[in-house]
Amino acid sequence: MLFNLKVYGKALCGETVCAIGYFDGVHIGHRKLFETLKRVSEGRQTVAVTFKPHPIEYINKDLSPKLINTYEQKVRKILSLGVDTVIVVKFDKNIANVSAEDFIREFIIKNLNGKSICVGFNFKFGLNRAGDVTLIKALEEKYNYKAYVQEAVMFDDLPVSSTRIRSALYEGHITLAKNLLGEWWTLSGKVERGRAVGRTMGYPTANISFEKNQILPAYGVYVTFAEIEGRKYFAGCNVGIKPTFGLNYVTVEPHFINMSPFVDLYDKEINLSFVKKIRDEIEFPTTEALMERIKKDMKIVEEYSKIL
User: Domain span at residue 200?
Assistant: First the structure.
């Protein structure tokens, strides 16, 4: 049985212990699972198995959730947590039609030489999502592996989940998203040339591209920062349609403070971390009124730059 996949990090070699999941956001629940993976490895290679695209996107694009991270971000985060290898399995017709037991036997046991399987308590997999933690536990002896199930990690008396993080971002609750993720939520994208409206107002902005399936927070103005060429730059960032200028498309435009005009950002990949929502996006009666409000916004950004 052939599986279409990409391997990141350490090349596969010998026996492995495997964590399986989508891991969107790589939140504190996922991190707890990876801690268990490393703890039970006993010197074996640690492997995180994930999928692309999201299984729901394959089944019905209209129902697919927006992603907290790009795939590249997710892979980098998992490897940074000390997992040896990340395997991204292409979720296509072939994988969608594999039964849960066949996936364990053919992929985890035969392909990866898996000796332990670590999953979250609500993990579902296989044809028609028939596989779950009960099946994984039931097959331990048959396929000679150990199963470990990560129970829900709680925050404010509620389970941590990717769905909860998406809701927090949609509502502009940046601090809650940070607590659930274990770090500031970060938007990754390239700097493109925009309309240069901000430059004419004295506030030049970087126009950040983003993937269509990537989540954006609630429209508004945010305190953000980015690491660029080894230095941290803070920015006031507008997310939205800029109603004062009548745009009909969404933009993400940070204005970096104290950045030299000679720093060329065009076509560079930027990871923009969101710290606090300053205000909602609103329509101003005049450009002058907008500029006055931007001055106030940037003062708030400057204050945060002194404490973070």
Answer: 184-307
